């Protein structure tokens, strides 16, 4: 198969790329493009060329199999220079995604036409890189510099409509792309060949003050990541020092970043996320068809899960205890979908359609057609048994029955069901319609078909589904419990809550453990601790500080007092009363308090994560260290650019 072919329609040439699955800029494509351009340049009678891709997308990125290998000529920057030098106008014709090197190729062309549903972006910063084939130099010469900066430092693709608005594309089409490109070509064949972008001036150059503001905003948003700031500097160099200096600076920065720890960590997590749900034992196992989803409980989690299912195109039935709870569940779903509507993620028509696709009921018999049911009722074994008993009775024999329990033993839940093979855990994270992570809990008797169906459901919802075994807290909550314990020990041994929190934020967590506990509310975990108190090993060290806070009526942010004191704007302040309590309780236990450096604090947290991670692996709860990293990065705020606790602490 040839990856690049050339055909002709009258005086218009078609250069077609066919390199499935994403038409990546592999060596065959790069070499094929140069050959195609040579052919067209030398051919009399050709007046323009349309660069188009077969399959689902335009060029959507680099070839991952070439990562880490020595570059093979022609390299992409040279291919793009060759495109720019072509004597015939080239029209990039974009459908699906034009990402990374794909968009850079399009920028090397003289014109760009895109399908209305296409997305265009330079997502390199997400891998700790900057565009390496002229993107930082060409884009700000086509669209306003600040728009280019948004795209390059943020890494988020934009829609065709936005691309059209800022001047990134020359035409947008709702009809057949090939025809649109041909029509467009006819309008430009008689025009003078446009100047290549590298020869043009940047568009709307920011003032010195504006550059300062852009720098401050990018640094703040980057939260410790180097690539976004490097990307901004690359754009600025190209804008202020000219295209040649910009291209040289961009290449040098790209090569430096490619070898950086951050880029290695980001690439690690990128690949781990894609590999984690692939279970060899499920190869060839066909999942059940999914169309009707049942959700038991319309509370915080149930309403979120229902919303996620609706957005994925399923019909949803929510079962609640009474009519009032049904109305509450429905109202929460409506609130979530209104949020999506306001953010422009769904249209009014879609919103209306989704609201008709959700129904509520108090009667389990209404789940007779459900293909998969997620239970999200109170965290109480007796209630769960009651619910699964009813599900066994009313659901089809092959309906998958999932529990969203955080801590309860799903094997015990399954054991009382008529067909335990179809009972699994689907542990969502709050808010369930937004958080990407999903732990798929494999019960002892789970059959392959039910598991395959659960993963298919996760995929349909756009989640990163991580397989894990049954244990207290699965992967994520179990690791969090382990490091929380170490943080509590540090409190008693000499640290204060704000010191631990500052160390965690400096490390890259969005917030520290104690601020997070205040936000979640302290009384729920207090109730759990009280419930588990009779079973606690008396020999184990127990830190009761959280209990004392609750006894003092300090339940966290919602009542203005927790580990911190909150002002009228909800801003956390250190509370001398809490600090004094901590010091007094250490003294009472006869502990001589000592100081902790920020490095000691983060190292203590990391080694707690590592140790628990090792235990989880040895018990077969997680399949690989990568699975643990994916969970901690996507569900627990572990900084993505550090790759996850197992990656970061791995010995070379
Ligand atoms: P919630 O209290 O907000 O909602 C529970 C809902 O279940 C309530 O609306 C209640 O009316 C309903 N309910 C109770 N018994 C029922 C029954 N027999 N039949 C039908 N409906 C019933 O609780 P939540 O925070 O949504 O938690 C639900 C489950 O999800 C728990 O198992 C919890 O451990 C788990 N979970 C919670 C979170 C979280 O962050 N809140 C995260 C992951 C998992």
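Sequence proposed for the structure above (652 residues):
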């Amino acid at each position: 198969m040839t990856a690049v072919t050339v055909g002709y329609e009258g005086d218009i040439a078609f250069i077609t790329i066919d390199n499935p699955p994403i038409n990546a800029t592999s060596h065959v494509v790069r070499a094929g493009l140069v050959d195609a351009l040579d052919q067209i340049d030398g051919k009399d009678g050709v007046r323009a060329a349309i660069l188009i891709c077969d399959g689902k997308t335009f060029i959507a990125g680099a070839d991952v199999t070439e990562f880490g290998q020595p570059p093979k000529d022609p390299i992409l920057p040279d291919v793009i220079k060759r495109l720019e030098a072509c004597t015939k106008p080239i029209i990039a014709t974009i459908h699906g995604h034009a990402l990374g090197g794909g968009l850079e190729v399009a920028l090397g062309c003289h014109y760009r036409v895109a399908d209305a549903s296409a997305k265009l972006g330079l997502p390199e910063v997400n891998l700790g890189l900057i565009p390496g084939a002229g993107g930082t130099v060409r884009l700000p010469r086509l669209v306003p510099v600040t728009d280019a900066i948004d795209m390059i430092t943020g890494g988020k693709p934009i829609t065709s409509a936005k691309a059209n608005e800022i001047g990134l594309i020359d035409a947008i089409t709702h009809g057949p792309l090939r025809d649109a490109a041909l029509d467009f070509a006819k309008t430009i064949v008689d025009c003078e060949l446009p100047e290549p972008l590298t020869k043009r001036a940047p568009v709307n150059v920011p003032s010195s003050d504006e550059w300062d503001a852009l720098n401050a905003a990018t640094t703040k948003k980057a939260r410790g990541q180097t690539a976004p700031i490097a990307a901004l500097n690359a754009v600025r160099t190209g804008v202020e020092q000219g295209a040649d200096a910009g291209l040289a600076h961009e290449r040098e920065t790209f090569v430096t970043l490619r070898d950086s720890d951050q880029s290695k960590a980001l690439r690690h997590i990128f690949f781990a996320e894609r590999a984690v749900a692939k279970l060899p034992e499920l190869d060839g196992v066909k999942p059940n068809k999914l169309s009707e989803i049942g959700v038991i409980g319309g509370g915080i989690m149930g309403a979120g899960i229902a919303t996620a299912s609706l957005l994925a195109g399923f019909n949803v039935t929510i079962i609640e205890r009474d009519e009032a709870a049904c109305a509450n569940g429905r109202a929460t779903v409506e609130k979530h979908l209104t949020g999506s509507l306001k953010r422009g993620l769904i249209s009014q028509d879609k919103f209306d359609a989704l609201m008709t696709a959700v129904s509520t009921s108090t009667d389990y018999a209404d789940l007779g057609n459900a293909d998969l049911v997620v239970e999200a009722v109170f965290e109480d074994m007796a209630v769960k048994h009651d619910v699964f008993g009813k599900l066994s009775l009313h659901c089809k024999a092959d309906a998958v029955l999932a529990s969203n329990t955080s801590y309860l033993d799903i094997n015990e839940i399954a054991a009382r069901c008529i067909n335990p093979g179809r009972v699994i855990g689907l542990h969502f994270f709050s808010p369930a319609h937004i958080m990407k992570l999903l732990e798929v809990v494999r019960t002892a008797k789970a059959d392959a078909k039910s598991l395959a169906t659960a993963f298919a459901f996760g995929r349909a919802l756009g989640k990163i589904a991580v397989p894990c075994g049954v244990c207290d807290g699965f992967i994520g909550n179990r690791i969090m419990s382990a490091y929380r314990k170490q943080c509590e020990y540090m409190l008693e041994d000499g640290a204060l809550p704000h010191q631990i929190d500052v160390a965690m934020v400096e490390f890259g967590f969005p917030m520290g453990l104690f601020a997070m506990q205040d936000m979640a509310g302290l009384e729920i975990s207090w109730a759990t601790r009280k419930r588990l108190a009779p079973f606690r090993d008396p020999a184990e060290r127990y830190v009761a500080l959280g209990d004392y806070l609750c006894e003092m009526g300090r339940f966290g942010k919602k009542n203005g007092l927790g580990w911190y004191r909150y002002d009228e704007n909800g801003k956390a302040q250190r509370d001398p009363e809490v600090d004094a309590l901590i010091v007094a309780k250490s003294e009472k236990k006869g502990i001589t308090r000592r100081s902790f450096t920020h490095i000691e604090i983060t190292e203590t947290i990391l080694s707690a994560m590592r140790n628990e991670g090792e235990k989880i692996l040895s018990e077969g709860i997680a399949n690989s260290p990568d699975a643990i990293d994916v969970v901690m990065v996507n569900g627990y705020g572990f900084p993505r650019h550090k790759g996850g606790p197992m990656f970061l602490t791995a010995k070379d």
